[in-house]
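SAMPLE LOG
Freezer: B-3
Tube label: C17
Construct: single chain, 119 aa
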Amino acid sequence: MTTTNERVQSFFDRYELALLARDADAIASMYSVPALIVFAGDLIPVVHTDQTRDFFASAFDQYEGVRDVDREMTVIAETLNSIWVDVKWSFQERSSERFCYQLIDHHGDLQIAVLTPLT
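STRUCTURE (predicted):
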């Protein structure tokens, strides 16, 4: 039987590969619909996969030259329906980004249901 940590590791391995490949379609497939993006003072409901794909496609320029990433992950909570994961992404000689991902099970695969930036 696969443990929660193994499922989460596998999910973020695939997510990282999609990010580094600048594959907006693959990234979008890893977000549930509906989903919620929670930024300071702003809630963005995601009601269609195209929203996620278009967002990432438009953001790839800010990661120009990034070919590798380091990732620190901690599963911070788990229920029967959700797993919350604190992930810090560090990019070559650039500042890092940290997010809390709420993952849900969708037909046996994990998907991001809520994304919240952390400081």
